[in-house]
Amino acid sequence: MTQQSPFVAVRETHIGVVFLVGDRVYKLKKSVSLGFLDFGTRARRHAACLREVE
User: Fold this and answer.
1) Both ends of the chain: CA-CA distance in Å?
2) How many other C-beta atoms can be found within 10 angstroms of the C-beta atom of residue 50?
3) Would you say 21 and 29 are in contact if contact means Cβ atoms under 8 Å apart?
4) Exposed end of the chain (fewer CB within 10 Å): N or C?
5) Which pairing describes strands 24-29 and 8-12: parallel, antiparallel, or unpaired?
6) How many CA atoms, within 13 angstroms, populate the side-chain half-sphere of residue 34?
7) What are the angstrom distances between the C-alpha of 42 and each of 5, 10, 12, 21, 25?
8) What is the pLDDT of residues 12-40, one digit of tens each?
9) Which residues contact 27 (CB under 8 A, 6 or more apart)?
10) Whole-prediction pTM
11) How far apart are the C-alpha atoms of 37 and 33, rounded to whole Å?
12) Is residue 20 within 8 Å of 9, Cβ to Cβ?
């Protein structure tokens, strides 16, 4: 019996990278400051992530 590998894909935007792995999704925010948003520091990226999962 062979085991199937999970579906894996990567999607990139101007503000982040999303990894689709099987039935899970992992999202990373890029260190960017674009005027209308500022993810320039680790603290700002962390705060934005916390707001997303509320």
Assistant:
1) 42
2) 9
3) no
4) N
5) unpaired
6) 10
7) 33, 22, 19, 24, 20
8) 999 999 999 999 999 999 999 999 999 99
9) 16, 17, 18, 19, 49, 52
10) 0.72
11) 6
12) yes
* Residue 41, amino acid: T
Residue given tokens 């999303």 in the structure block:
18
Give the pair of three-digit tokens for residue 11.
């999607």
DSSP secondary structure of 20-53: EETTEEEEEE---B-SS-B--SHHHHHHHHHHHH
Here the tokens at position 9 are: 């894909």
For residues 34 and 15, what is the distance between their CA atoms, to the nearest angstrom?
9
Is there a contact between 39 and 29 (Cβ–Cβ < 8 Å)?
Answer: yes
